[in-house]
Design a protein that fits this description.
With about 750 residues, this protein is an alpha+beta fold. It is about 20% helix and about 30% strand. The structure holds (2R,3S,4R,5S)-2-(hydroxymethyl)piperidine-3,4,5-triol. The site of (2R,3S,4R,5S)-2-(hydroxymethyl)piperidine-3,4,5-triol (DGJ) has 11 residues, from loops.
């Protein structure tokens, strides 16, 4: 990895063995973009790439016949309105009412490693050799503002991390009305756009269309990254597929309102912008203050979509997630939510935990309903004190009893919320976000606490930390069950109300940080009514997230498949639940439910006492299987093989580092009569190695990848032992081991 600085041409080249990212200072002092893609040689001068031709009807910066029009050059951090009419990355309301800053290149600095972003999630290095960072400083001579653009290139992987910081070194206050984390101007528009979108219980479906002139965008204005759209974007060459071709991935490490868009101009230049959503954002900078944008990460892959995903997975697992759990196989848990909902007491909980322990489960998680007056979702949120009528021995007593049996104990919180019917709200009605004298919308009978206020975060922190200090808790599920409406803080002045959404998220990050600092051994799982805040920002605090409230195996194939475009298997909470399924009323075989849940953190979400003795034996076997293979399943290299969005079959697999072991899974959704013969082509194996495919036979890696495994079954009229029977919702696992 290298960062070349060419003083004479003012050209900057970030390079590693896979990628190059090249910029230059433009004639007006702003920063121009020259190239991002596969590694190329370094050179002093790449100015031929500027193509600053003068087109009719353009506005020119200098009227001398040679001046450039910013509309026709590729830029790094552009401003709308100064000869560029495309959407910009930065907008600043100044005291004369103008919104146009004019930053001019001042200096640059290269440092080893990667600096932290205060109060925000960010990728990191563990030693200075792992990355190098270029800091470009720009100044606005008119208002004294300073802009610093940060670029990190990692030694390994086609990854560039970016963020921007704006400081007010002038004499007058200004307000940022837009400050994006990245802008990339690509020289053509020959891309397919893929976004991850959906809704509650069907999160992160990949949606694809050809990039077209004009703006295409995904966003959230819900106060959290949302079930609807994910802060993640793919641009792939139309000919690229899962295994080959050029793909760019963009991920925003942020959990609040976001915008990710591509604007293709009528010259087929593509501008990608990503960052905090400028809608409802306004941040006042008094002299001496600064603002740091969240980080965005760009990945370049020439090995198709799987190559891009694998780069994100590795980065997020090893240099975004932190703490003791980041690369550790995750405990197999049982959660009582779908087993009991609010209808439980200590006795019932202990019975569920005991049966789970017998089946080999390692962690019991007590979900919603254990505190205050929370006997339904109408009341009690905010009162984080155990309810004695349910838990006579409190959380400390219950956690003691569970841990005595050899299991670990975990607990659910929803720290950011309050029911109007709660002691907390009665004592502090102004602690909920809302506009005085106006109606406050409720969602799930709850209001959102004003986490932009330090005293609110302090109070919630104290309640949670007290329980953690008093009890034996190894895991926390941090839930968040509504979007933010009437976003207004009673603690901020009128001209700072545009800060509330972002300050709220900073408050969430602050509470996470305080808890993980004090309780470094606790495993955090984030959740937002399922996958409503499954984003890279939260992975910095919680290495796993509840992927969706939808626990149906068939639905989960789609949700986990879609999620895998950006996020690693180790981050996806996945449970075996009861049938008929509580969300879709579908009954799938227990084996299929397990075969889907293996590709995640794995756990159970039902009362195992209600299963037959035979099913309980099956559960023991599935639990043991997960224990035997979870390192490979959660941390192996993951390949999508067959998309559930394209047909009746779906498949994926994981391969270990030296390609000596692999597990593939194939799922058939509906049975069909007299169907075609089928094969499943594997990926990522060593073509030279001979593999034993358990129960199937011995094959070379090249056979398995080029011919595939025969997967024809009873629906293809095959009969005999070990042949998958006809029937809906069936699955098959293939265990591969190198023959030595
Ligand atoms: C929503 C979560 O996604 C569920 O798993 C469960 O924890 C409920 N909230 C509890 O209210």
């Amino acid at each position: 990895m290298n960062i070349f600085i060419h003083e004479k041409t003012k050209t900057f080249h970030l390079q590693n063995d896979l990628i190059s990212y090249i910029m230059t200072v433009l004639p007006d002092g702003s920063l121009g973009q020259l190239y991002f893609g596969k590694r190329i040689h370094d050179k002093e001068d790449f100015s031929y790439l500027l193509e600053g031709c003068i087109r009719s009807h353009s506005a020119l910066l200098e009227d001398n016949g040679e001046g450039i029009s910013l509309e026709h050059v590729k830029q790094e951090y552009p401003v709308y309105g100064s000869s560029d009419f495309r959407e910009g990355a930065l907008e600043i309301l100044q005291d004369n009412g103008s919104r146009l800053p004019g930053f001019v290149y001042e200096s640059c600095e290269v440092t080893a490693g990667k600096p932290k972003l205060q109060g925000l999630p960010a990728t990191y290095t563990e030693s200075d050799e792992e990355a190098a960072t270029l800091r470009i400083t720009m100044k606005d001579p008119v208002n004294g503002l300073v802009l610093q653009l940060l670029y990190t290139v990692f030694a390994k992987g086609g990854v560039i991390a970016r963020s921007a910081e704006i400081s007010n070194e002038g004499n007058a206050a200004v307000s940022l009305t837009k400050a994006m984390s990245l802008c990339v101007d690509l020289p053509d528009a020959d891309y397919d756009w893929i976004q991850l979108s959906g809704s509650w219980a069907r999160e992160r479906y990949p949606m694809q269309h050809r990039l077209h002139q004009g703006i295409q965008a995904v966003e959230s204005l819900r106060g959290h990254s949302s079930h609807q759209h994910n802060p993640f974007l793919i641009l792939k060459r139309p000919s690229a597929d899962e295994f080959q071709g050029e793909v760019l991935g963009f991920s925003l490490l942020y959990s609040g309102n976001f915008l990710a868009q591509a604007q293709v101009d009528t010259y087929d230049v593509t501008r990608v912008l990503m960052g905090i959503h400028p809608g409802w954002f306004q941040w006042k900078l008094e002299p001496g203050e600064h603002f740091q944008t969240p980080e965005a990460v760009i990945v370049y892959s020439e090995n198709g979509l799987n190559g891009m995903s694998q780069t994100f997975h590795k980065l997020f697992q090893t240099r975004l997630a932190r703490g003791i759990w980041k690369e550790q196989p995750r405990p197999i848990l049982i959660n009582n939510w779908e087993a009991t909902y609010f209808d439980f007491n200590e006795e019932k909980i202990l019975a569920i935990a005991e049966k789970a322990r017998e089946c080999g489960v390692e962690l019991f998680v007590l979900d919603d309903g254990w505190f205050g007056s929370r006997r339904s979702d109408n009341a009690g949120l905010g009162d984080w004190v155990p309810a004695p009528e349910l838990l006579p021995n409190g959380i400390s007593g219950l956690s003691e009893k569970v841990t005595e049996t050899g299991m670990k104990f975990g607990l659910w919180f929803e720290p950011e919320m309050v029911n109007p019917d709660s002691d907390l709200f009665r004592a502090h009605p102004d602690w909920a976000l809302g506009i005085p004298e106006r109606r406050a919308s409720l969602s799930r009978h709850q209001r959102v606490l004003d986490f932009s206020r330090r005293e609110v975060v302090d109070c919630i922190h104290e309640m949670i930390a007290k329980i953690l200090r008093e009890s034996k808790i190894s895991y926390i599920k941090w839930d968040m069950n509504r979007s933010i409406t009437e976003c207004y803080s009673q603690a901020l002045p009128a001209d700072r109300q545009g800060e509330v959404f972002h300050r709220y998220i900073l408050g969430v990050y602050d509470l996470y940080e305080r808890l993980i600092q004090e309780f470094p051994e606790v495993l955090f799982e984030s959740c937002a009514g399922g996958g409503g805040r499954f984003d890279a920002g939260l992975l910095y605090y919680a290495p796993q997230a509840w992927t969706s409230d939808d626990t149906d195996a068939v639905e989960r194939i789609k949700i986990q498949y879609g999620t895998s475009y950006a996020y690693p298997i180790s981050s996806m909470g996945s449970h075996v639940s009861a049938v008929p399924n509580h969300q879709v009323n579908r009954s799938t075989p227990l084996k299929t439910r397990a075969d889907v849940a293996y590709f995640g953190t794995f756990g159970y979400e039902l009362d195992l006492n209600k299963l037959t003795a035979e099913e309980q034996e099956e559960v023991k076997a599935y639990t043991q299987f997960m224990k035997d293979h979870r390192s490979l399943l959660q941390f192996g290299t993951f390949y999508r093989l067959q998309s559930p969005f394209e047909g009746n079959e779906a498949a994926w697999m994981v391969v270990n580092e030296d390609r000596s072991e692999a597990i593939a899974a194939g799922y058939r959704i509906l049975s069909r009569p007299n169907g075609p013969f089928t094969r499943l082509k594997l990926a990522g194996l060593d073509p030279e190695k001979l593999y034993e495919v358990e129960g199937v036979g011995r094959y070379y890696g090249d056979e398995l990848m080029n011919l595939g495994i025969i997967t024809s079954d009873a629906t293809s009229c095959k009969t005999g032992e070990n042949i998958r029977p006809a029937g809906d919702f069936v699955s098959e696992l293939y265990l591969l081991k190198e023959v030595l």
